[in-house]
Amino acid sequence: MRDPNRKPPSGKNPAGKRAWARRCAAQALYQWQLTGQEPARIATQFLADQDLGKADPDYFRELVFKIPERAGEIDAVLAPFLDRPIGQIDPVECAILRIGGYELIAHPDIAYRIVLNEAVELAKIFGAEQGHRFVNGVLDKVARTVRPAEIDAPP
Is residue 130 predicted with pLDDT exceeding 80? Predict the structure, then answer.
């Protein structure tokens, strides 16, 4: 699942550090889903990885610990917009949907457009060929449900 050719963001760009944290969290959550390992063990493994050096480690930890903790809640928000049960979703796309769902629910400070864009970018990198369309469609519908005022606000 790791993309060794992709370089981490450079400089002190907080948005780039958060994007890299999401990217690493998607990989960690994928591992959690497939192995059932404790998130703490997976986080420790990833925090020792040199690729995480350019990420926001606090945000990475938040995603890796909070998403498994709140998976039932997140899955319940995603479920009405899925065409099959969450357990039948590709594990890569499932991890990405859970990150986006979590951010839409727990981080109103992050604009919904950024959440969707980041999720689509992750799906383009790690997901199936057209997985980004599926991720975008689901998260767009979730955003309309959990953040209607933000979506309806004039530009």
Answer: yes
